[in-house]
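Slide 14.
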Amino acid sequence: MFKDNVNFLLDDINLEGYLNNVYKYHNDFKSGRCVCFSISPQTINGDIFHMQVVAECIDWEDDKPIYLLIYSDVTTLVKQYVSLSFFIQEFYQEI
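Slide 15: predicted structure.
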């Protein structure tokens, strides 16, 4: 469904891939902290989905955290926000 894998290993988080906006949480992930972030993966058809992600460390194995990631699709909310912002801007330009 997605062009890029939305499930990832800690080593996949870098500044060059689509997870570059998650890189700032790299140390939090390594230490097992709860992390909330957004990603916008592209589907194989080229559509962009906006996902809010909550990552919770649920266990440790060999001193490495194991996370449960819960993805919430907020695409509709983002599109509504963009539309609302556009209409508000148009409204104030007409005044």
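Speaker note: The beta strands are 35-39, 51-61, 64-73.
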